[in-house]
Amino acid sequence: MHELSIAYSIVESAEEAARNAGVTKVKAVNLRLGKLSGVVKDALLFSFDIAAQETLLEGAKLNIEELNVIAYCPTCNENVELPSVQIFRCPVCNTPTPTLIQGKELELTSLEIDDENEQEVTNATATHS
Ligand SMILES: [Zn+2]
């Protein structure tokens, strides 16, 4: 399963970030997921629980923020949100919009350590704050 290997790499990055920050227990992992990332959210949630077993992330919750697809429209000269992930045309003027601005993200954004603290993750490396 595609999502399982992604889940393992998320767990690996998050665990490394947690270790670097001197954290021994992670409560939740926050992830941004574009609707064009090719990742099925439910499958990823399921896979995450499996991948997190026997790691610092065991029992942690995976919070997924889904990102809509945004493309640049040369006719409107602005970024527009596409209503469908299948049709790459501006919803305002129907011009083809091949330039994607947002929608393919698969980004680990932060780890929640406890109720008070949130550990930001930048490029999977965390620093003490
Ligand atoms: Zn347009």
Structure characterization notes:
The chain folds into 2 domains: 1-67 and 103-118, hypothetical protein PF0899 fold (2-Layer Sandwich), CATH 3.30.2320.50; 69-102, no CATH class. Helix content is 23%, strand content 28%. It is built from 2 helices and 7 strands; from the N terminus they run αβαββββββ. The protein has helices at 2-20, 41-51; strands at 28-34, 61-67, 70-73, 78-81, 99-102, 106-112, 118-120. The strands form 2 sheets. It has a 4-stranded mixed sheet with strand order 2-1-6-7, with helices on one face. A 3-stranded antiparallel sheet has the order 4-3-5, with no helix packed on it. The longest helix is centred in the first third of the chain and has 19 residues, at 2-20. The radius of gyration is 17 Å and the shape is elongated. The N and C termini lie far apart (37 Å). The structure holds zinc ion (ZN). Residues 73, 75-76, 80, 90, 92-93, 95 line the site of zinc ion.
